[in-house]
Specification:
This protein is of the alpha/beta class. Helices cover 29% and strands 27% of the residues. Bound molecules: flavin-adenine dinucleotide.
């Protein structure tokens, strides 16, 4: 069923009786041409682009819980392509271009809102770094504007401009950045992949990866063995555990990242803004709640909940930037398991096991990458080689030294 204005009008008159299920609930088949493990945004997008771009339709996406139950449904929904390094920037800009046409492509309202992303700076040195990043973006054909204090004040008069500790000296603005509705992205990709014949199998946990003579044979699951000559792993925070089933030890640590939503208030922020004197990002949802987050908790964990010290840290940054939020009540908070790589950049690559492919290491930033990640991973799986856009995102770069250290923080995953 196609969604359209006409369809909505017709269903309104029929009491909604004509709506059908958005995607099927198939039994897993004993054999597929390709299996994608993980029904988050990346796994579902991979399934969709395998069918759309490479005409591979005998494909299954296997999810241990329900689709979107991982980080795809837990993030703060920020999308942007304001990267510095050549290994990253063209990839994230490709993602941004896919976001810009996503609703038409998927025939689904993913609520992409290009309300802008503004990274504030509070010192002259930070202005230099922002100018450099903006120049790198423009050299890649990406929009970037360096604002002074007056420029930021004209956009967001409510910020604490003259705070004694962190006066706002300006910001780097990407107007095409913004937000998208995370659940809708999951549902949109699931529906579009299903319409092209991809099986989306929920409640199907992969418990083993069968390998013979260095070649993948298929996966053991809670619903039996499923054979496939190609298996792609898109398990985000669980990447290390799943890859270990094939004997691989990944350069990835799992950490908790929390997010928060406040009670609804009148419109006060019409863009995404980040605090430059700490790690803090905030936007306002269409329902009025402020959606915000900060750093990872800083210890390895598979728990999807966080700790109080980080709540305090995030609240401090929030009040430093927007003092009027000090009496606002937080309605909800939660955690997700982040797949932190050693250089803060992702891996989309083949693995030493033939037919086994890896998509991981997304750190804080994988939601914005969802379209390009699926697109590039599908290419890598279908053609058995990386696309130019993910050529630098190699698994062996930590051995060769060709790292993509966007922050310059070195091999310390908790600092990226
Ligand atoms: C609090 C928070 C805020 C964030 N904010 C942003 C943001 O503003 N912008 C941004 O770009 N990124 C953000 N991120 C990061 C982003 O959400 C992730 O990088 C991205 O969602 C990861 O890809 P995914 O959607 O495929 O992951 P997931 O949704 O986690 O998908 C992985 C799936 O694999 C499944 N799985 C695991 N093991 C198995 C198994 N053995 N068998 C079958 N299935 C399995 C899991 O159940 C899960 O559904 C945030 C993350 C969090 C937690």
């Amino acid at each position: 069923m196609s969604y359209s204005l006409l369809r909505i009008a017709r269903e309104a008159l029929r009491g909604g009786s004509g709506w059908t299920r958005a995607w099927r609930d198939p039994q897993p088949k004993p054999q597929y041409d390709a299996i994608v493990v993980g029904g988050g945004g990346h796994g579902l997008a991979t399934g969709y682009y395998l069918a759309k771009e490479h005409s591979l339709t005998n494909v299954a996406v296997l999810e241990k819980g329900w689709i979107g139950s991982g980080n795809a449904g837990r993030n703060t929904t920020i999308i942007r392509s304001n990267y510095l390094l050549p290994g990253n920037e063209p990839f994230y800009e490709h993602s941004m271009k896919l976001w810009e046409g996503l609703e038409q492509d998927l025939n689904f309202n993913t609520m992409v809102s290009q309300r802008g992303v503004l990274n504030l700076f509070h010192s002259d040195a930070a202005r230099d770094a922002a100018a450099r990043r903006g120049n790198a973006m423009r050299l890649h054909g990406v929009d970037a504007e360096l604002l002074d204090t007056a420029g930021v004040r004209a956009m967001l008069p409510l910020l604490a401009f003259d705070a004694a500790r962190f006066p706002i000296k300006g910001g780097l603005l990407q107007r095409r950045g913004g937000t998208a509705r995370h659940d809708a992205v999951v549902w949109g990709y699931a529906r579009a992949a299903d319409r092209r014949g991809v099986d989306i199998v929920q409640n199907c946990e992969v418990t083993g990866i069968r390998v013979a003579n260095g070649q993948v044979q298929g996966v053991e699951t809670t619903r039996g063995f499923i054979s496939a000559a190609k298996v792609g792993l898109a398990c985000a925070g669980h990447s290390s555990r799943v890859a270990a089933m094939a004997g691989l030890r990944l350069p990835i640590e799992s950490h908790v990242l929390q997010a928060f939503v406040s009670e609804g208030v009148k419109p006060m922020l019409d863009t995404v803004v980040t605090f430059g004197a700490g790690h803090f990002y905030i936007s306002q949802s269409d329902k009025g709640g402020l959606v915000f987050g900060g750093d990872i908790d800083g210890y390895n964990s598979y728990a999807q909940r966080g700790n109080m010290p980080l709540v305090e840290d995030v609240a401090e940054a929030c009040v430093a930037l927007l003092p009027q939020t000090s009496r606002l009540r937080v309605l909800r908070s939660w955690g997700g398991i982040m797949d932190m790589s050693m250089d803060g950049s992702p891996i989309i690559d083949r693995t030493p096991v033939g037919g086994l492919y890896l998509n991981a290491g997304w750190c804080y930033g994988g939601f914005k990458a969802t379209p390009a990640s699926g697109w590039c991973f599908a290419h890598t799986i279908a053609r058995d080689q990386a696309h130019a856009l993910n050529a630098a995102m190699r698994l062996d770069r930590f051995a060769t030294g060709a790292v993509i250290d966007e922050k310059g923080a070195g091999a310390q995953p908790n600092l990226h």
